[in-house]
Amino acid sequence: MGKFKNQSLISTTKQLQCLEEEGSDECFSLKSTTQSHTHGVQPLGNLYLSSGSINSRDTGLGNLHTLSDELVLEILGFLGASELGVLSTVSKSLYVFTNHEPLWRNLVLENFVGGFQFNGFWKSTYVSACYPSFDLSSNELRSFKVRDFYSDYLFQSWLCANLEMKPEWLERDNIVRKKGISVEEFVLNFEEPNKPVLLEGCIDNWDALRNWDRDYLMQLCGDVKFSVGPLEMKLEDYFRYSDQVKEERPLYLFDPNFAEKVPKLGSEYEVPVYFREDLFGVLGNGRPDYRWVIIGPTGSGSSFHVDPNSTSAWNAVITGSKKWLLFPPDVIPPGVHPSPDGAEVASPVSIIEWFMNFYGATKNWKKRPIECICKAGEVIFVPNGWWHLVINLEESIAITQNYVSRRNLLNVLDFLKRPNASTLVSGTKDRVNLYCKFKNAIDGSFPGTIEELAEKEEEKKMQQRKLPFWDSVTDANMGAFKFSF
User: Fold this and answer.
1) Residue 12 near residue 43 (C-beta atoms within 8 A)
2) Can you give the residue ranges of the F-box domain (predicted)?
């Protein structure tokens, strides 16, 4: 992880110096609501430009100064709140490290799985939850600054939380857009060839598109709690958090059981006509998780991943807008490191940091990513196996579903019967037996379908391998004979 952090900060000093200069491709803009760094941390490059300065980060750590910032924070992550509080009094440097917001975020998420009321900062959220009578009205400690403290790692977290998306990151839109096409055209031109498409106008009849705003959802859902990362939260508490949060990786509300928790939510949308064949339905209640309501503030989203169980997916935006980047299955996005068996995907940088470090390079790739901004009322089709990244450009509400049609049934079955399926399959407690259950259910409900699809797939492969006679003896471009022995 450190490599990516350091690489990005090599140029960060130059970029920050020209934040106010217009017309430079090297520059970034900070959000209008940006506050100065909580404790005055500066990028390491500023130390080299400041003659005679000493890094108080090192002097305050003593013999521990040889450790990387990541390792210092990893060690501090083993401590509880009381230990961090005591350690923060040892030196100004340790004060900065022990007040690093992600440390306190982890403590909140570990200790308050039933939800919390965000209080502007993660540390004050923890303190107010544990000690409700404690007076948090004073901002003196929050504004405490440490002079000459230089750290790329700590500064980067603040920078990524406060950067605006650059216009050039949003201008590319090369996805195919369709409106009013038939199901047959969708299958022939997009689902069969496994190509993304953005569909317009196919959810215009949804009550959700007309009704779902904050007030309506909070009134409808009341005290119902939804999945937010590792915990459960009421919508009122989640919106309180999303209104105040300024962090690199905002928590995302991503709930697979929303329609069971609040049945009216499930009744206010319907699956677009293009995606209604969902063969996982033969498993009834035993099917893996397949649909989610998604709510997140500006800057929240999902880093590069491939959808679970080799399924295809559709994602419908109800309010807000989302930036999408998609790479085909044979192109691993830069900065992403999947394990050989595909069980794990390491993406050591946040979404904004990925744009800072890697987005520009994709301009010159032969296989450039498919990109678009998906707005309210639009639906994107994500074919199985495609890598994709999504970031909310504003507060957004969406519904997404993963599904299995005849076009990707064989892919899903092949995935489910892999030797390491127990580590790959997700969304179900019975990972080991899902293949057998699914195959038997398909055979029972649609006899002969698997064999028929397998035969067609083999015929297709043979046609691709077999070169037509005239193609073997003539050059189609030159109109002349050629010889092949």
Assistant:
1) yes
2) 61-107
CATH 2.30.30.40 fits 167-445, yes or no: no
Q: Where are the domains of the chain?
A: 44-162, 167-445
Q: Residue 47: exposed, middle, or buried by beta-carbon count in 10 A (0-12, 13-18, 19+)?
A: middle
* Look-up of token digits 């998420």: 109
Q: pTM to 2 decimals?
A: 0.86
- Whether 167-445 and 44-162 are alike in CATH topology: the answer is no
Average pLDDT of span 215-244: 95
pLDDT of residue 376: 97
Neighbouring C-alpha atoms within 13 Å toward the C-beta of 80:
3
Structure tokens that stand for 404 in this block: 């299995």
Element (H, E) at 107: helix 101-111
Burial of 45 (0-12, 13-18, 19+ CB in 10 A): buried
Q: How confident is the model at residue 455 (pLDDT cuts 50, 70, 90)?
A: very high
For the chain, the C-alpha Rg in angstroms (whole number) is 26
> Which whole number is the average pLDDT over 325-347?
83
Closest CA to 352 of 251, 252, 253, 250: 250
Residue 36: what residue type? S
Buried b (16+ CB within 10 A) or exposed e, 69-102: beebbeebeeeebeebeeebeebbbbbbbbbbbe
**CATH domain 44-162 topology:** Monooxygenase (1.20.1280)
Structure tokens at 46: 């500023």
Per 3-state DSSP, the chain is made up of helix, strand and coil in percentages (nearest 5) of 40, 15, 40
Token pair for residue 399? 């519904």
Is residue 325 pLDDT above 90, yes or no? yes
Q: Please state whether beta strands 291-296 and 396-403 pair in parallel, antiparallel, or not at all (unpaired).
A: antiparallel
Q: How many other CB atoms are there within 10 angstroms of residue 295's CB atom?
A: 27
**Cα 260 from Cα 224, distance rounded (Å):** 11
CA 75 to chain centroid:
27
Beta strands in 396-484 (DSSP E): 396-403, 474-475, 480-481
At 444, the amino acid letter reads G
